[in-house]
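Sample intake sheet
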Amino acid sequence: MRWTNLNLKEIMTALREDHDMRVSQWVVRKLLQKHNYRRRKAQKKCMVKQDLPHRNEQFENIARLKAESEAAGNPVLSLDTKKKEYLGNLYREGHLYTREEIRTYDHDFTSLAEGVIIPQGLYDCCRNSGYIQIGTSHDTSEFAGDSFRHGWYTDRQKLFPQTPSILVLCAGGGSNSSRYYIFKQALQKLADEIGVEIRIVHYPHYGSDGEAAWRAGADFRVALIGPGVDASHAYERTHSDSIIATAQLIVAYLLADDAN
């Protein structure tokens, strides 16, 4: 027998009723330990695809393109959307200091939410600066394209007024997926408007964004954006003012000279 979902009391009862063996729960526990049975949780450690051909070569190619763009003084921008959060009096795991009890709804139905926020980040790998735009509806390819456009016109264009080319680093999935033509169409329209070549490079599938960015030669602090957002909890992830404060904290960390 490989596993059972019976608890100690149920095993004790089954032994008594089916095999006429009367033992205590303590004995059942000792027998399970003797035969190396432990209460375990399934672990997601089996990759859907393994030994993907030319995977490392893909990372090496991305690192080469990134180095060439940086050497030429052209912008290298990393674009990514993080997990959306529902706003409102909803429960989140975690603890925080407070002077009174915090009460939330006993169920996190989306119908109880007051809204939703979708953080879309645009990170400048050359200048170690970032731009975060907060969406309030859906994470679509149109949103990813509009976010990049807004970030370029609002924040990056003045820093690279004469650049002939932009290198954009993206994850393989999500709203900026390599399979979605709408996102590429939006960037092509922007390229036509500003007269600048926009080259999109997608990280290989089946790897976290942080791992992919690090293996492709990005500043390691880029890999901390996702965990930094996910580490916020409780009140911080259910109220808009705290979401904005968390985003500002992450940007301040990225810009800090002594970050490590």
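Comment: The longest strand covers residues 115-124. The helical segments are 8-19, 25-34, 55-71, 141-156, 181-194, 209-215, 225-231, 240-255.
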